[in-house]
Write a structure and sequence with these properties.
With 98 residues, the protein is mainly α. It contains 6 helices and no strands. It has one domain. It is elongated, with a radius of gyration of 37 Å.
């Protein structure tokens, strides 16, 4: 095959347009379905956290109300326990067995 025959084949290939109407049919629908499937397959954790944020806010608010409503350790009791080194004594007793 010489160069002239090859050029003639290339010219014929350039002028002949393939029938792509069958491949074009429903392209947007197929693309949208594929994108939807990809999006449903992979849900990043920030999106999940953003969806759960109201539930977390309710839990935090309920915990705050519960802590405010129940009587707990006074700050003076906590200060005196720290001042008396009660925590350190408890840890030493726990770890040494004395």
């Amino acid at each position: 095959m010489n160069d002239e025959q090859l050029n003639e084949l290339f010219r014929a290939a350039r002028t002949d347009r393939a029938d792509t109407s069958r491949a074009e049919y429903g392209f947007e629908t197929r693309l949208a379905a594929r994108l939807r499937a990809e999006r449903e397959r992979f849900v990043p954790w920030p999106a999940i956290a953003w969806r759960l944020a109201p539930a977390f806010a309710v839990i935090v608010a309920a915990a705050a109300v519960w802590l405010m409503a129940t009587p707990g350790i006074n700050s003076t009791d906590l200060r005196s326990a720290i001042a008396d080194d009660e925590v350190e004594r408890m840890l030493v007793t726990h770890f040494t067995g004395d």
